[in-house]
Amino acid sequence: MSRDPGPLALGSFYAWTLNHKLHQPEPKKMFTCISCRVAFDTAAEQRTHFFTDWHRYNMKRRFANLPPVAAIAFNEKVFERREQNAVRSDPRDLFCSACR
């Protein structure tokens, strides 16, 4: 004679299953970039990353034995550089009108 676990026991099992799934650690990401210290979900994301300016910048830093720069910090540097280049005066304005 089998014993019926009843609705509470089944509910407890489902609650345990849901709780167990919620608290499982995320699967490890298999694709990484050592120079930038980032991980990717797919090989395609990793390959795309290798062609970015951020990756090239961190590769140069790695060869110089410097730590990598985070993506946010790199983007800020790029933005600052673009602003500096936009503010520069035109070199033609540096000459007097007689020298032109």
Using the CA coordinates, give the radius of gyration.
28 Å
- Sequence stretches where pLDDT stays below 50 over 5 or more residues: none
Distance between the termini: 106 Å
Number of continuous helical runs: 4
Helix % is 40-55%
Binned strand content: 5-15%
Please identify the oligomeric state.
single chain
Strand order of the largest sheet: 1-2
- What order do the SSEs take from the amino end to the carboxyl end, as H and E? HEEHHH
Largest sheet: 2 strands, antiparallel
Q: Look at the helices and sheets and give the structural class.
A: mainly alpha
Mean pLDDT: 80
Instruction: Give the tally of β-strands.
Output: 2
Globular, elongated, flat, extended or rod-shaped: what is the shape?
Answer: elongated
Characterise this structure.
- With 100 residues, the protein is mostly helical.
- The protein has a domain at 31-87.
- The chain has helices at residues 6-22, 43-49, 53-63, 71-87, and strands spanning 31-33, 38-40.
- A two-stranded antiparallel sheet has the order 1-2.
- Strand 1 and strand 2 form a beta hairpin.
- The radius of gyration is 28 Å and the shape is elongated.
Layout of strands and helices, then pairs:
Blueprint: H1 6-22, E1 31-33, E2 38-40, H2 43-49, H3 53-63, H4 71-87
Antiparallel strand pairs: 1-2
